[in-house]
Design goal:
It is a single chain. By secondary structure, this protein is α+β, with helices and mostly antiparallel strands. The protein has a domain of about 70 residues: SH3 type barrels (Roll). It has three helices and eight strands, in the order αααββββββββ. The strands form two sheets. Strands 3-2-1-8 form a four-stranded antiparallel β-sheet, with no helix packed on it. The longest helix is centred in the N-terminal third of the chain and has 19 residues.
Length: about 170
């Protein structure tokens, strides 16, 4: 088969055969073409509901493309994925409860020099007195950090993570 496809005479004959088959499928048995021109007066129907009347020469007056698009009817069962659909929004809207608020602090390192202490919390350089969310840094020593928050205070050592969970106020149900 590969030898046949490499032969230009064979490929030319196959292409001509394909063209002949396509041409014969488009022709009807009586010799007329099954493809008609868009402006054939024999196939042009006049809608009695419209005010457009054919001209004396038998041609229809030309309408603008905007008018033609307005008259175009799109079937309701169209399979076009880009066609606009009149979708009604859902009547009931479900309310989702908000999750609890979380504040997390990861102490990576402590640097003390000349009386100043710097902390590496959540990949940011901080110092005593700074706040992260609802957590305040109370004091720091070489072993860790004291954190104050609405629940009290906690000690966080180097390399550990502290998570403060604050429940969201729930609406009272009657």
């Amino acid at each position: 088969m590969r030898k046949l496809l490499n032969n230009p005479w064979f490929v030319t004959a196959m292409a001509l055969l394909a063209v002949a088959l396509m041409w014969s499928s488009l022709r009807t048995s009586d010799g007329n073409s099954s493809i008609s021109a868009a402006g054939d007066p024999a196939e042009t129907a006049v809608d009695p509901n419209t005010s457009e009347q054919p001209l004396p020469s038998g041609e229809m007056p030309t309408a603008s493309s905007q008018d033609a698009l307005k008259k175009l009817i799109i079937p309701k069962q169209s399979r076009d994925p880009f066609a606009s659909r009149n979708v009604q929004p859902a009547a009931t809207v479900e309310t989702v409860e908000q999750p609890d608020l979380l504040d997390s602090v990861h102490l990576t390192g402590i640097w003390s020099q000349n009386g100043a202490t710097l902390l590496l919390l959540n990949n940011r350089v901080t110092q005593v007195g700074d706040t992260i969310g609802r957590i305040t840094i109370e004091s720091a020593d070489p072993d860790g950090v004291w954190l104050t928050h609405w629940k009290g205070r906690d000690f966080l050592t180097v390399g550990k993570i502290f998570v403060l969970r604050t429940p969201v106020r729930r609406a009272s149900t009657p």
